[in-house]
Design a protein that fits this description.
381 residues, alpha+beta, six-stranded mixed sheet
Length: 381
C-alpha cells in the first residue's frame, strides 16, 4: 500500500506567481518596488535640464554582525546611478579603487588631463542596523476522530492495542518579520567635508519567511497511512538592501540637484499592492489569453511612442523591436519578450515625452485590462 501511495504522489509544483517572477529559462532584471522611482528621477532631471554632477564612492559598509548581507553595496549604488541617468545624463559616476586623496594626485599626472574629471562629490554610508527577527509567529490547528475503539490485549509484561481505527490531521502556518537600516551621506571631494543636510537614513521591513504545512494520519486495523505537505517561501534581505540603496540615492541626488525628488517617492508604498494585482492579471493573460497580453503591450507601446504598427495581437518583429527599445530605455533585460517585469513597468510608470508634461506614477489598475487606454493608428482601443 505504501508503494502504491508513493507512486501516485507527485513533487509539489512551483506556484505560478513564483514562476512568473523568476522564470527558469531566461535571466531577469533585478526589480524592486523603487525601480519606478529611479526612472521617475531620470525623467525629472531631464525635464529640469540640470547640469551633470560627478560622483564617486569607496563603497557601502556592513556595520552589523550579519555576514549574510551582500558585500556588493557599491555595485547596487553604481547601478542605481546609471539607471537614473539613462535619458538625463545628470549623474556621472567616477570609479576609483584608491582613496580620495589619490584622486587629486591623479588629476595632475593623468595623460588626458584635459578630459579627466575629478568628482564633485563622494557618497559614503552603510548598513547600520539589521533585526532579522523583529517578530515571528505560528498558528495551527489539529483534529482527530476515532472510528472504532481498540481491543486491549494483555501480553503479560505490557498491553497492546489492536483493531483501532482513527484519523488525525493538522495544519499550521508560520511567518517572520525583520528590518534593515541604511545611513548614507554626501561630501565634497575638494575639502572632504560632508554637505550639510545631504544625507539619508531609512529603515525598511520585510516579511522574510512564510510557510505552511499539512499532515494527516489514518489508522485502520494494523494498517497505517500518513500524508504531509509543506510549502515555504524565503525572501532575501539583499533585495531590501537594494531598495534602501535606491531610496538613499534618490534622496541624495535629489538634494544635490535641487529637484523635487519626493514626488518620485510619493506613491512607492502602494506599489506592493499594485504588484500583486498586476501579477494576477499577468498570469491570467499569459496562461489563458496570450493574444490579449500581446495586444495590451502593443497598446502601451503605442501610447509610449515606441510602436507605430497595427494592433494585431501578434508578436511580430516590429513589436519585438519596440519591446526591446522600451526595455533598454527602462533598464530592463532587452529580450523582446513580454515578461512580468516589462508588463509591470508598462502599467506602473510612463516616462514623459514632453518636458512640460510629467506623468507621475500613473496607475492603470482602474481600467479593465490594466493598461493605458490610447487612441492608436488602428483606432480606439
Amino acid at each position: 500500500m505504501m508503494i502504491m501511495t508513493a507512486c501516485s504522489l507527485h513533487a509539489p509544483k512551483v506556484p505560478e506567481d513564483v514562476k512568473a517572477k523568476y522564470t527558469s529559462n531566461l535571466p531577469k532584471a533585478t526589480v524592486t518596488n523603487f525601480n519606478e522611482a529611479v526612472a521617475c528621477m531620470d525623467d525629472l532631471m531631464l525635464a529640469s535640464k540640470v547640469a551633470p554632477i560627478y560622483i564617486s564612492s569607496q563603497g557601502l559598509t556592513n556595520y552589523t554582525s550579519d555576514h549574510t548581507i551582500s558585500q556588493g553595496g557599491i555595485e547596487m549604488l553604481i547601478t542605481t546611478l546609471s539607471k537614473m541617468s539613462i535619458r538625463s545624463n545628470a549623474v556621472r559616476f567616477v570609479s576609483y579603487n584608491s582613496d580620495i586623496a589619490n584622486m587629486m594626485t591623479l588629476q595632475g599626472v593623468h595623460p588626458n588631463r584635459a578630459s579627466f574629471k575629478v568628482p564633485d562629490y563622494f557618497i559614503r554610508g552603510g548598513i547600520t542596523a539589521h533585526n532579522k527577527s523583529l517578530w515571528s509567529g505560528q498558528r495551527g490547528a489539529g483534529a482527530s476522530v476515532e472510528f472504532e475503539e481498540p481491543d486491549i490485549i494483555d501480553s503479560g509484561t505490557f498491553f497492546t492495542l489492536r483493531g483501532q481505527e482513527d484519523a488525525t490531521t493538522s495544519y499550521s502556518m508560520s511567518s517572520s518579520y525583520g528590518t534593515l537600516t541604511i545611513d548614507m551621506s554626501a561630501g565634497f571631494i575638494s575639502n572632504l567635508q560632508i554637505v550639510p543636510g545631504v544625507a539619508s537614513s531609512n529603515t525598511l521591513a520585510l516579511e522574510n519567511r512564510k510557510g505552511k504545512a499539512v499532515s494527516a494520519d489514518l489508522g485502520v486495523g494494523d494498517l497505517g497511512l500518513s500524508y504531509s505537505l509543506s510549502s515555504n517561501k524565503t525572501f532575501d534581505y539583499n533585495t531590501v538592501y537594494r531598495s534602501l540603496v535606491q531610496v538613499g540615492v534618490i534622496e541624495i541626488i535629489g538634494k544635490l540637484q535641487n529637484v523635487p525628488y519626493w514626488r518620485c517617492l510619493a506613491n512607492a508604498g502602494s506599489v506592493e499592492y499594485r504588484d500583486e494585482q498586476l501579477l494576477k492579471k499577468y498570469i491570467e493573460l499569459e496562461l489563458h489569453k496570450p493574444e490579449a497580453l500581446i495586444e495590451t503591450a502593443q497598446i502601451a507601446l503605442t501610447e509610449l511612442s515606441y510602436y507605430s504598427g497595427e494592433i494585431n495581437s501578434q508578436l511580430n518583429d516590429e513589436t519585438k523591436m519596440a519591446l526591446q527599445a522600451y526595455q533598454q530605455q527602462m533598464g530592463l533585460m532587452a529580450t523582446g519578450i513580454i515578461n512580468f517585469e516589462t508588463y509591470r513597468m508598462m502599467n506602473l510608470y510612463q516616462p514623459t515625452r514632453e518636458e512640460k508634461s510629467l506623468y507621475w506614477w500613473k496607475s492603470a489598475l482602474n481600467t479593465p485590462d490594466v493598461v493605458p487606454q490610447a487612441e492608436t493608428k488602428a483606432g480606439k482601443k
